Amino acid sequence: MIVTLTANPSIDRTVTLSEPLRSGAVLRARTVTTQPGGKGINVSRVAAAAGVPTVAVLPGRADDPLLRALRETGLDHRAVPCEGSARTNLTLAESDGTTTKINEPGAALTEENLRRLSDLLVELSAGAAWVVLSGSLPPLVPTDWYVDLLRRLPGARVAVDTSDAPLRALAAGFDSAVPQLLKPNAEELAQLTGADPDDLHDPLTAARAARTLVDRGVGAVLATLGAAGAVLITPDGAWHATAPEVTPRSTVGAGDSALAGYLLADLTGAPPADRLRHAVAYGSAAVALPGTGLPGPHHITPDAVTITALDPLPHR
User: CA-CA to 169 of 20 to 30 Å: which in 176, 180, 212, 230?
Assistant: First the structure.
């Protein structure tokens, strides 16, 4: 089972434009879609589509439209009651695949909300192959909360996908708690390592930067690099995956799909290179889908992903 935590869930509203986005203009929408969202929820949706048991953990009121949408989709979830409503995130998608996102801050969580979320996650982790801590943190939540959760989950395999202050706090806590998997994009890898984000779209440079995180105890780093594919670094080696050519329609959920693809392959016992192959296959499939569509097994083409070993890499 894959258990996911989404502390800052959302209703994801995607507007597909019939023309390029222009500031100050009056534009027409070609389509509008609305889905329950948040990075951990997206991972659970992809896992469920693949037939893998998953539980999405999140805060939410019983009458919140987000929880109603989750019930309608049939996604297994556990919600900790809280005040306030789930945020709405708006994505403007252009015909060439360019996406502009406007994310609301989300509802604040109390110390009691955080305690109940933590306790529920610890309880569910006992039966989980992976626990995923994913996404931003809502207002008033300490930026090092993911570090606290890692300390409470010493027996679980934990994957973390976050950014900005929570990501920097995570790195600052590596001396006491490290995840088994970290999934940054190029910009987030720069936040972790101090490297120039423009340089990290080069796979070898990205792999060398990610190697410093593995040297600090992280089990593996899956760094997604957009059109440049992705790299995977473990204590035993490093690999680069080149994505198949697709017609981009929306980047929404691509990173979440890549993380889910990696975990799904891991559950089958796949070796590192094949885990990377499936991560990129899922991420590429998400880019080819419109709006907030997320891929299932019938969307992916792992054989179209090219894997290259990057070895040896310098240790720092």
Answer: 230
